[in-house]
Amino acid sequence: MKEKINLRIVIPILLLAVISIISIYSASTYTSPTLGNLALKQTIWYIVGSILVILILRVKNDFIFRHSWLLYILGNIVLLGLLLFGQPINNSKCWIVIPGIGSVQPSEFMKIILILVLASMIHNFRSDYKNPTMLEEFIFILKSFIIVLIPSILTFLEPDTGCVLMYLIIYIAMIFSSGIRFRWFFMALLFGSLLLGGILWLYFYKENIFISIFGSSLYYRLERIFDWKTGSGLQLENALAAIGSAGLFGYGFNNTPIYFPESSTDFIFAVYASNFGFVGVIILLTIILYLDINIILLAKRKTTDINKFMIAGILGILLFQQIQNIGMTVGLLPITGITLPFVSYGGSSLLSYMLIVGLILNVSNEKERKYSYK
Q1: Which residues of 11-49 are buried (b: 16+ CB within 10 A; e: fewer)?
Q2: Is 139 within the bounds of a domain?
Q3: For residue range 185-195, what is the model confidence (pLDDT) as tens digits?
């Protein structure tokens, strides 16, 4: 059967690919020569990602859902092995170094695995319990939370706080779409607020106790997050200067006059904005919004429930990364090291999102069917 390609999804991805490559090329002015030609590498990653999309289209989503638990087990084994035997890079054990290819970040792929597993769990729960009791919902919430908690702990210990945040966003978005009683969200919000309030109280007023309980690593990470309130720091100050001085049309392609670290990854939006100004930013935001709207419309069409749950997780993580990355670049949100999907440099991040593109395109080609993914 010849597959149909949803151009409303593919065209914005292609446009984001062009924006990504030219922005990374422009950022190369301030990146270390030891990293090589990042624009060329990003092009190669996009080609590899396109091959993965084709493979996903061949395999179909129902086959992937049936093997999601196997992927979950393998993913956690890799995270544990990385934590025990991985070589630290910048004091973090987040990457598997493959000679001649580069580094792979397993936590980026775990977010997709969690989406698949949670979609299967929610689908089965809704199939087994048409009108679940409070106790049945509580047991389901507890089970699904444990599924997210295991990779979250392993990833947090690497340490990679950004990916842990993404896991939690995926969980919240998908549980919200599952149809459980809203009172659970109010209870979770109350408990989370009390817990977070207690942690922050220790952080601000009982520094020694905080470090003795949680360690200096978490203290440093919180310190980095709260630094954004002052608006200080080389990254943020220079990024704001680059964006603010770009004017209507920017400084032009490959003309980034102000230096700031992580220009090809975390702060790629600032590079693009300084090159193409306010008009360029409007074009980029329009492309992003067009992609997001079409994914939302895809979830509203007649498709399987499991696909709708999966899209809820995809939208949750996609919107979170878009808002967080752009927000931190312009000083509205804390700097967390979260990249801009399809634009920032990074093989693992890009490949994970290209796999997501394949899953989304499969939804376009699937008619409503009933499956069991137990």
Answers
A1: ebbebbbebbbbbbbbbbebbeeeeeebbebbbebbeeb
A2: yes
A3: 888 888 888 88
